[in-house]
């Protein structure tokens, strides 16, 4: 079975967040199941090629925005998973990451490449990811290429709204697309919606999120469309690359080892010293790792709680980049409590692993979380998650067993969960240790979920009719 995995980021070459991790670990897991999976992504100028050998697979030209453009396809192999990787090069459109034309051009380039048989390898399925690939199903139909399509929604919030000009530039017939905001003159098309409507099957990254996106609260305006396709929307929990995480941890503590308690103390002391925090194992160390995205990541309830509680009873390490006003607000708190709050506004994986390994708890107050990987990585490192009960957090954390969930989205509920956590660690040491062990023993590898994807791939190839599987429970 041949699968071309079309994606926007891929860890080792280019990573912005969880999608880069998933692209790498998912493709490795599918390869281990015997699928001939290959990855394609744009060849941005920021791609880290390092010592990877690359060869020119082919070149062609295509018409975009009425002009002839040249495209090169470079081939390499992922340095860790050995999955073949294709990089699409065009200096005008694909050098930078976040322009709507970049997506339109990339989509057109992928389909033109298939039409011209540049790879001389024939995918049975295109596995598309998020709105960046949204025009591909329609472009494939227009090119009369009989390839099945699956689109995975990693985050419904980001949809890629564009003017109809992009559709015309990509050579698509605008009447085949679904306009959004049709009632106002500046009506637009929506990349993700096009992908959802025209793909053979839609998956999303946790069973709970598959249900949530059917509701007005979480549907980001697409809930009615998704409800109409209900039987074709399947939720499968993401996994993580456990081996990679363990090897990255190296001397740092991770996984259920006999010495985990001592190693946690050592790592905590090291981090406290490095960041100028008060050095003590008695004080509970919390962390927050991730994009500082106020719309998703719950910064406002975190900030309100921090302003209310006695900061000197805890320590908090923040690692992330994003919304500047939030960076300033958090930094302001850290300025008053330099021995208790440490802000690190950067993207640095080595530091992230140090923080996972050193912390007692990770705070995940996300308003919505399609899957979330940080809670899985944290648990592997024996760090207890405290999270809002939503999406993949709900599917991967058991309240009172492997972590703490709060089910009202406000700062008081978050504070109550934090208090429960502090009390358990301070007053019920055995129960706290048991919870840590439970968390470390949870299997978040791709094993189970990769098999579910494999069975969907098989169904896609067998059925010419609509798949009606519903949400698949993990
Ligand atoms: P999202 O995909 O919404 O950004 P996830 O929880 O799914 O969130 O995945 C985030 C990934 O990015 C994790 O691997 C996390 O460790 C990593 N990460 C996030 N922010 C940083 C940062 N500032 N430095 C290093 N790694 C980070």
List the defining traits of the structure above.
474 residues; alpha/beta; Rossmann fold; 2 domains; nine-stranded mixed β-sheet; disordered C terminus
Number of helices in the DSSP assignment = 17
Biggest sheet: strand arrangement: 3-4-5-2-1-6-7-10-11
Q: What is the CATH topology of the largest domain?
A: Rossmann fold
CATH architecture level-2 label of the largest domain:
3-Layer(aba) Sandwich
Round the Cα radius of gyration to an integer and report it: 23 Å
Spatial gap, N to C terminus? 24 Å
Description of the molecule:
The protein is of the alpha/beta class. It folds into 2 domains: 2-239 and 447-473, Glycogen Phosphorylase B (Rossmann fold); 242-441, 3-Layer(aba) Sandwich (Rossmann fold), CATH 3.40.50. It is built from 17 helices and 17 strands. It has a 9-stranded mixed sheet with strand order 3-4-5-2-1-6-7-10-11, sandwiched between helices. Helix 10 links the parallel strand 12 (285-289) and strand 13 (315-319). Helix 9 (260-275) crosses helix 12 (349-358) and helix 10 runs parallel beside helix 11. The radius of gyration is 23 Å and the shape is globular. The chain binds adenosine-5'-diphosphate (ADP).
């Amino acid at each position: 079975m041949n699968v071309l995995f079309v994606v926007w980021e891929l860890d080792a070459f280019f990573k912005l967040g969880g999608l880069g991790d998933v692209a790498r670990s998912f493709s490795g897991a599918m390869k281990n199941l015997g699928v001939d999976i290959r990855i394609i992504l744009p060849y941005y100028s920021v791609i880290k090629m390092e010592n990877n050998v690359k060869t020119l697979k082919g070149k062609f030209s295509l018409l975009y925005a009425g002009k002839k453009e040249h495209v090169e396809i470079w081939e390499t192999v992922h340095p860790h998973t050995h999955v073949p990787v294709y990089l699409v090069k065009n200096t005008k459109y694909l050098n930078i990451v976040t322009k709507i034309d970049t997506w339109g051009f990339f989509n057109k380039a992928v389909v033109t490449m298939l039409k011209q048989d540049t790879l001389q390898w024939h995918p049975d399925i295109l596995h598309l990811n998020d709105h960046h690939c949204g025009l591909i199903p329609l472009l494939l139909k227009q090119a009369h290429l009989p390839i099945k399509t699956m689109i995975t929604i990693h985050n419904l919030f980001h949809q890629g709204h564009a003017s109809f000009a992009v559709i015309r530039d990509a050579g698509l017939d605008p009447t085949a697309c679904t306009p959004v905001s049709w009632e106002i003159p500046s009506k637009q098309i929506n990349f993700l919606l096009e992908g959802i409507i025209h793909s053979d099957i839609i998956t999303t990254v946790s069973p709970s999120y598959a249900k949530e996106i059917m509701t007005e609260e979480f549907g980001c305006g697409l809930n009615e469309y998704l409800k109409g396709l209900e039987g074709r929307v399947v939720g499968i929990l993401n996994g993580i690359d456990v081996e990679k995480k363990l090897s990255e941890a190296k001397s740092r503590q991770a996984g259920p080892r006999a010495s985990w308690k001592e190693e946690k103390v050592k790592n905590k002391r090291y981090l406290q010293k490095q960041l100028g925090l008060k050095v003590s194992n008695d004080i509970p160390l919390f962390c927050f790792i991730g994009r500082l995205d106020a719309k998703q990541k719950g910064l406002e309830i975190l900030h309100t709680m921090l302003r209310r509680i006695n900061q000197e009873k805890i320590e908090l390490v923040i690692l992330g980049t994003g919304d500047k006003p939030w960076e300033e607000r958090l930094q302001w708190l850290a300025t008053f409590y330099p021995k208790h709050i440490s802000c690190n506004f950067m993207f640095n994986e080595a530091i992230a692993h140090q923080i996972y390994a050193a912390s007692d708890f990770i705070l995940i107050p996300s308003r919505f979380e399609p899957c979330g990987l940080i809670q899985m990585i944290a648990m592997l490192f024996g760090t207890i998650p405290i999270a809002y009960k939503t999406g993949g957090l709900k599917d991967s954390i058991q309240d009172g067993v492997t972590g703490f969930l709060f089910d009202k989205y406000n700062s008081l509920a978050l504070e109550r969960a934090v208090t429960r956590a502090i009390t358990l660690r301070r007053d019920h040491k055995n129960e706290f240790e048991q919870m840590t062990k439970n968390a470390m023993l949870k299997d978040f590898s791709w094993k189970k979920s990769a098999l579910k994807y494999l069975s969907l791939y098989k169904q896609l190839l067998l059925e010419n009719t609509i798949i009606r599987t519903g949400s698949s429970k993990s």
